[in-house]
Amino acid sequence: MKCKVAILPKINEPFVIEECDLSDPSPAQVRLKVKTCTICHSDIHSVKGEHGSFEGSGTVGHEIAGIVDAVGSKVTYVKPGDRVIACIV
Ligand SMILES: [Zn+2]
CA of 37: how far to CAs of 27, 34, 61, 64, in Å? Predict the structure, then answer.
């Protein structure tokens, strides 16, 4: 599955939108079709480098709402088509 992602190439640099491939979910994972995403204060701290530096590039946006697209073989609490909210840590 293809998706677009906002990549932070380096701390305090503008985001770059790139297309990437998403793999199928592993047994305990859920893949979502994201409908909306917040940028919260902790994301801003990351962009400014206030959570420390990181190697390579990074992404932000960990509070999302969307529709379950696929589930791993061990997932029983949601199914494709379910509307969900998620906080990714
Ligand atoms: Zn947050």
Answer: 25, 7, 6, 4
